[in-house]
Known about the structure:
The complex is a heterodimer.
Chain A: H1 6-16, E1 20-21, H2 24-29, E2 43-45, H3 50-63, E3 67-70, E4 87-90, E5 97-101, E6 106-109, H4 115-124, E7 127-128, H5 141-147, H6 154-157, E8 164-171, E9 176-180, H7 192-196, E10 204-212, E11 214-215, E12 219-227, H8 230-242, E13 249-254, H9 255-265, E14 275-283, H10 285-301, E15 306-309, H11 313-333, E16 338-343, H12 349-362, E17 366-372, E18 377-383, H13 391-408, H14 427-430, H15 433-446
Parallel strand pairs in A: 2-4, 3-4
Antiparallel strand pairs in A: 1-2, 5-6, 6-10, 7-11, 8-9, 8-10, 12-14, 12-15, 13-14, 13-17, 16-18, 17-18
Helix pairs in contact in A: 1-3, 8-10, 8-12, 9-11, 12-13
Chain B: H1 3-15, H2 27-32, H3 39-50, H4 58-65, H5 72-76, H6 83-98, H7 102-111, H8 115-131, H9 144-147, H10 161-164, E1 168-169, E2 176-181, H11 184-188, H12 191-203, E3 206-209, H13 219-223, H14 227-241, E4 248-251, H15 254-268, E5 278-280, H16 281-287, E6 299-302, H17 306-311, H18 316-325, E7 327-328, H19 343-347, H20 349-365, E8 370-373, H21 376-388, E9 394-397, H22 398-413
Parallel strand pairs in B: 2-3, 2-4, 4-5, 6-7, 6-8, 8-9
Antiparallel strand pairs in B: 1-3
Amino acid sequence: MKRLSAGAAARLKGIFGERMSVxxxxxxxxxxxxxxxxxxxxxxxxxESTEETAALVKLANEEGFAVVARGAASGLTGGSVPADGSxxxxxxxxxxxxxxxxxxxxxxxxxxxxxxxxxxxxxxxGLFYPPDPASNxxxxxxxxxxxxxxxxxxxxxxxxRDYVLQLEVVTGGGEIIHTGSNTIKSVTGYxxxxxxxGSEGTLAxxxxxxxxxxxxxxxxxxxxxxxxxxxxxxxxxxxxxxERLLPRALEFVDGxxxxxxxxxxxxxxxxxxxxxxxxxxxxxxxxxxxxxxxAVAVAERQGAIAVxxxxxxxxxxxxxxxxxxxxxxxxxxxxxxxxxxxxxxxDRIPExxxxxxxxxxxxxxxxxxxxxxxDGNIHVNFLVDTTDSGIMxxxxxxxxxxxxxxxxxxxxxxxxxxxxxxxxxxxSLEVAPVEMALMKAMKRVFDPNGxxxxxxxxxxx
Amino acid sequence: MSETTAIxxxxxxxxxxxxxxxxxxxxxxxETRSEGMVARGRISLxxxxxxxxxxxxxxxxxxxxxxxxxxxxxxACPSGVRFDKIISEARRRVGSRVGxxxxxxxxxxxxxxxxxxxxxxxxxxxLWEKILPLHRExxxxxxPMLFGDHRSxxxxxxxxxxxxxxxxxxxxxxxxxxxxxxxxxxxxxYPEVVTAEIAVLNATGAGxxxxxxxxxxxxxxxxxxxxKLLARLERLNxxxxxxxxxxxxxxxxxxxxxxxxxxxxxxxxxENPLGAPVEDFSEYVAKHSEKIKGRFGGQVSWHDPCHxxxxxxxxAPPRELLGKVADYREIEGxxxxxxxxxxxxxxxxxxxxxxxxxxTDAIRAGGAEVMATGCSGCILQLRDRLAAAGAxxxxxxxxxxLAEALEEDSGKDKPGGEESIA
Lengths: 461, 422
Ligand SMILES: Cc1cc2nc3c(=O)[nH]c(=O)nc-3n(C[C@H](O)[C@H](O)[C@H](O)COP(=O)(O)OP(=O)(O)OC[C@H]3O[C@@H](n4cnc5c(N)ncnc54)[C@H](O)[C@@H]3O)c2cc1C
Ligand code: SF4
Ligand code: SF4
């Protein structure tokens, strides 16, 4: 394990005092994220201000250590897994909602604010922060911006990127900069905000964000439609969009996944159902009642064998709770599962599902998929039984094929989880050499000495 | 660690996907925002400790003991990780190697199995109350030599329940008979709760034994990783409750109930080691509630004790009962932890107070007038925190609310009742 030089450690202590630790308990606690990959940092600090963060990054440049920003470590691609010997900046203590501006419909927040807490606070005053990753109750605004988190309402409301107006960040060079504008429009210069959103902590460290809010929709209606095949469910999605319905959520779950969550959490689904769609619409009270019926009618025309409508908030919460159990249930069923986050143009979902199934068959792997279908974002999982020797190699080959398939469909490697460590070796499947060179050049502009979150996104050389 | 516990604990550790969801429910994490203070972090530390990779340090103990054992994380965990198993084993490891603060350990080992010694200790605490300037708002700091705690504690009863109560209450020929497990706080601090429990149980038609040989449930011993002591207490309780011909053992304290229901079968390997099924007070009364009537004057809300909701999974019965006799009002955050957590509050008085304050803020925001609950620890903590906040909210055991309603009801029937001038 790499250590900090005594000089660097002393200077860090000088900046952070008690809020700096090299104890092995603290470094262990900052070594992992939800991928269960690990890397051992040399120290952990808990910044409380932008200035401290800037001092940290400046010191990193002088002393030659790396800095890795850490939110809730719920990332699914190893983004916050620190490089060995780096210093982790845990933003747990910068967790204040600084302002909710009801006249301009914005919120100014620190990076450590938990997204669910922000949602609750703004909803109290009738406002709405739509990005809603399934991890909303624990993931942070900083992590959501750095990964451009998506979630369950992307179809109608877009993703995190669409709600970031301004950022205050510390660049890899240690400078504090402000990007964007507190206005709904701005074309003054390059759009650095968009560049920073999704940059996985490799260009700059976010210390404040001004987020866009919208009025809280009055009504919500939710239904679950069950289908005999995933293909039919996929067709229903395309049809709904074609009929200019815009549900705020259209979540797809296939039969294998349903079977697993049913077994682990005791849910019951109608017999013969091999796919389900969760449909949720929002808007004016009367509008939603009409819209949900239109959506249900489309589902039924596409062959839905059963439909359940949520009668009240409790019923709706139960549906979403089931949805949020999927990823962990698959984990419990197969801890070594391979889990991808591809995104394809929406009308290609049925084809993609069929082709993924075919890949699974060819490599003799159990495939299960669930998807933010309205966004074309499919979470493809290959379950891995470690007693089956050689399965890991087969799974890796299958994943590579899935990525090739995705790119051939005009899709992308990652819809919302980022590239991090997990997907960097596939990066060049989608990103051509010229574009990669340009990205690396940008990285050098923001972070000339490469101190921020090294080893992420770009393939090893 | 025996071979089998090693395997199961290892398996439980491996089940954790490190998703981080427990961060959204853990009361200690919510106050501290420290990864070492949440299940995911503690599991990572336990793994390193149990595999011998990491040593038992002051920091390690802080994180392993900085847990309320409220089991919210187990309830919320999507991967079904039995965190309770992991933390117990990890604590046992640090516990047996360096021990808990030696004085507490010795005192506990000596006193908990011996009521008479415990009585003397409690009495001397009562004496100290007079001698030492420990007064705070008319209450003393409970058993200071045991817990080194800094909070205000209830005044000790003049006579403990087990010394002053009869062996049996109710009709000799009652069709249903139960035995009451009173719990330490019930015994020494809240005899009025025990009185109310007996009255309500009698009103349901049940005869109630109060076995005198019963001792501490052992929750504290278990929390501190002292399995030997827990096993000894279990045996003594087993003897105390033997041969009574009862249909259930009723516990009015959620922590005690959780220990009797969960830990006793686990350490003995038997389903009903005490000879009869253990039931929470409200769970039992709700099943026989036909004769529970009368009105409790005013509005009542319910606080879910963690050990009732997340361990025993009892949530509906107390609400049902309160709704029957009072103007029941559900408050937001009804199931938020009070921050007591037994020994937790002794080791981490400041964090415990913060959690308690968050709870009392919710109680005040919800406009509660009377908070009813079902755990002695919660009663103690809620009273302390509400007093500290200067809030005018009364805290009662659910049995006390029901007993008051029953009394009002019988008062109505009494000939002459209130009119009487004699
Ligand atoms: C059960 C579960 C469900 C999930 N569901 C979804 C979902 O529906 N949609 C979705 O998009 N994701 C989902 N995720 C993935 C994950 O929650 C998101 O990627 C989230 O944005 C990560 O936030 P975090 O606070 O945990 O950040 P971390 O995991 O700690 O960090 C993620 C990245 O952000 C960087 N970072 C963190 N803070 C800062 C900062 N202040 N400045 C700069 N960089 C920073 C880190 O260096 C790292 O690269 C899910 C994860 C789990 C475990
Ligand atoms: S919720 Fe469960 S699986 Fe997730 S980190 Fe916590 S203990 Fe582990
Ligand atoms: S038992 Fe309670 S206090 Fe302990 S880790 Fe779980 S949620 Fe936190």
